[in-house]
Write a structure and sequence with these properties.
The protein folds into three domains: 63 residues, no CATH class; 40 residues, no CATH class; 138 residues, Trna Endonuclease, Chain: A, domain 1. The N and C termini lie far apart (84 Å). The protein contains eight helices and eight strands, in the order αααααββαβββββαβα. The protein is of the alpha+beta class. The chain is elongated, with a radius of gyration of 33 Å.
Length: 269
Amino acid sequence: MSIYCPVCGTPKSNPKHKTCGHQSCRSTIGWSEHRKELHRKTFNPILGGAGKRKGVKNKNPYPESEAVLNRRKQDSINKKQKYDNMSIEERKAYYGTNFCSSDEVQARCRAIATENVLKQGTSKKGKYSPRFPEKYIGDPTNIIYRSMWEKKVMSSLDNNLSVIRWASEEIIIPYYSPIDCRYHRYYPDFYVEARAPDGSIKKMLLEVKPATQTQPPKSPKRKTKRYISEVMTYGVNEAKWKAAREFCLDKGWEFRIITEAELFKKTTK
């Protein structure tokens, strides 16, 4: 009875076992002689292999050669050239009737893209570079958006010809929080000065929020931590918006809350 593994040539932990116990060696029992020989050359140090490290499973015991990688790269280039040389009708015939032509496919893609934007709407943060910096009130090189929705509103305000001036989080409104019973400072998302159709100047404050945060959360059967957090968020938002409405009422401005219903409103032809 041999005490060495017949596959890789290393000593077996148990002489009664067929192999050394390594997963790749155990699966080699059903391999062909050609694959077994490649495995020996790969792992057996006596045959020039790198050997096996204890506790490490090599998921690819046969690394692809440079010739195989080059062939795959050339196949990818050939497929791209074949695709570029096809006409629209040939692409439809080769890839299927739904390839980049069906209105249903385009509508489905737009729906998926809108859903993805809605999911990531309150998660991304970055710096916005205005196209018309002279319209911005404040430092146009330091305009921070805290969501993709805010970025969409910034782009709309920047490119809208009726908007004379606008600012982001430049107005400070004190409000009383019902959560900790203390006064805090509220920064509305946008301040806008726009020209109305009658020629008058209209001033307003805009707040971008998901529609779920503008409505009181539904009471579940069991009050979870998530429900309690939603109730606290709604209470703080209500306090902020009440103070903002009173602030705008004193100055003759308008306060508006923008949700995804206004941001992604479908235009009817």
